[in-house]
Design goal:
Strand content: 5-15%
CATH topology of the largest domain: Beta-Lactamase
Order of helices and strands: HHHHEEEHEHEEHHEHHEEHEHE
Number of helices: 12
CATH superfamily of the largest domain: GAF domain
Mean pLDDT: 79
């Protein structure tokens, strides 16, 4: 309600009051002049009072609205201002404030609810991510346990490494994997390869320190990862046996500060290796180091149990196993099998004259000459002090005699450094071939008989003996 409305309302009140006073004056019989003065005075007094009362309520309303505009205090309310237009305006303002307050409360509640939902979703997402990560870690621990179990259950490196490579290839989604093991010449030799078109052609190949990425790893002793091998010129791609796409990692296999080997692997371009996986591969390499060390011990024990410690040749136990195998094969395929037995002439006198260290040197030299003079499929064994046996599969009597005489000649021409030319080493040999239906004992016995004949008839010679006359 504006000032004009207030004035108009006050005028209406004053007019009504003037009429009432005029009627009273007339009734009192006052003179007209005094009556007029009295009426005017009454009207002014009543109008002033009405104006002040109405104006105060309006000012209260105006000040309240101004304060709300400045401070937005939605919880404040106007006091009751009557039942007329001013009072109705005040009640309307209070109603608007209440509705605004209720709406604000609803908005706050909705915002808090939305925030709580968002936090709930974020926590659920984080929990899912952590759950997935935990599952990956558990899978990794399970794989490490399986690798360690493989390392302890398998008996040798040729059994352990293929099994480990197969498990890694599946668990880590590898395209190719190779395990290289350090040999006595400091070469890192591929012992197992998986995922290549022709893995057998890679087995036995080796790298040296500084050759390619894997060669750098052998020198730096730190894992090396290539995200995109197409952009890495030092990547050898396994000498062209692997694609030049995807990612590559070379991880050293170390134990006690020594590089035992390298774990080299690739992943397809669509599934590159991550830093987390490379860290896991370092843990795998640690387990592999234990596996290689354990397998090496098993191989060494196996070698010691089957090989002569002094010469490295097969011992009597390994000779017996191979002789049984060759006899079975000769019978199955109807092929020949020849056996040579030989003895170093006058070895006891040589030992007594020059001492056992020189005698040991003679034995090692004879072993080397014998090994170099036969095929890879043949077996040379030391079965006694100075006694040796040579198995010659798929060899008839005449060919065996020629081999025996070749070995005799080479030994006679060989100079043992420790003898310093003071003595010459010779050997005597007995030769025989497998006969129908006989076993290993009979075959070796006949070869020994031929050897004794060679020794008894002058030594440094070859004697052939057959169970029946040669055809």
């Amino acid at each position: 309600m504006g000032l004009g409305s207030v004035v108009a309302r006050a005028s209406a009140i004053s007019a009504g009051t003037g009429a009432a006073v005029g009627a009273g004056v007339v009734a009192a019989g006052l003179s007209p002049i005094w009556a007029c003065l009295l009426v005017v005075a009454a009207v002014l007094v009543v109008g002033l009072v009405a104006y002040r009362v109405e104006g105060r309520r309006v000012q209260t309303l105006v000040r309240f609205l101004a304060s709300q505009a400045d401070r937005s205090e939605l919880l404040r309310r106007l006091p009751p201002l009557g039942s007329d237009e001013v009072g109705q305006a005040a009640r309307g303002v209070n109603a608007i404030l209440k509705a605004t307050t209720d709406a604000s409360v609803d908005a706050i509640d909705s915002s808090l609810e939305l925030q709580a939902k968002q936090e709930e979703f974020e926590l659920a997402g984080a929990l899912a991510a952590k759950t997935t990560e935990l599952e990956h870690r558990l899978d990794e621990r399970a794989l490490l346990f399986e690798l360690l179990r493989e390392a302890t259950e398998k008996s040798g490196m040729d059994e352990v490494l293929p099994s480990v490579a197969a498990r890694l290839s599946v668990a880590l989604r590898l395209r190719e994997v190779a395990i290289l093991v350090r040999d006595p010449n400091d070469h890192f030799v591929i012992r197992v390869a998986r995922g290549f078109d022709d893995p057998d052609s890679l087995v036995g190949r080796f790298i040296e320190k500084g050759e390619g990425i894997s060669g750098e790893v052998t020198r730096a002793s730190e894992p090396f990862i290539v995200r995109d091998v197409a952009r890495e010129p030092s990547y050898l791609a396994f000498w062209g046996h692997a694609e030049r796409t995807g990612s590559f990692a070379a991880v050293p296999i170390r134990q006690g500060g020594v590089n035992l080997g390298i774990l080299a692997l690739t992943r397809p371009e669509a599934d590159p290796l991550s830093e987390v996986e490379v860290r896991f591969l370092s843990a795998v390499a640690t387990t592999l180091a234990l596996a290689i060390h354990h397998a090496s011990l098993v191989d060494e024990l196996r070698k010691l149990s089957n090989h002569d410690e002094l010469t490295g040749l097969a011992n009597r136990r390994l000779l017996g196993a191979r002789l049984d195998r060759e006899i079975a094969r000769a019978r199955r395929y109807s092929t020949d099998l020849a056996v040579l037995t030989l003895d170093i002439d006058h070895f006891k006198q040589l030992n007594d004259r020059f001492g056992h260290p020189v005698g040991d040197a003679v034995l090692r030299d004879v072993a080397e000459v014998l090994t170099a003079g036969v095929r890879a499929v043949d077996t040379v064994a030391r079965v006694g002090g100075e006694e040796f046996v040579v198995l010659l599969p798929r060899t008839n009597g005449d060919a065996a005699a020629r081999v025996a005489d070749k070995l005799r000649s080479r030994i006679a021409a060989h100079d043992v450094a420790e003898l310093e030319g003071k003595s010459r080493v010779t050997i005597s040999l007995g030769v025989t071939v497998l006969d129908d239906a006989e076993g290993a004992a009979a075959l070796l016995s006949r070869a020994d008989q031929a050897l004794y004949e060679a020794k008894n008839t002058g030594r440094d010679r070859v004697v052939l003996r057959f169970s029946r006359p040669a055809a």
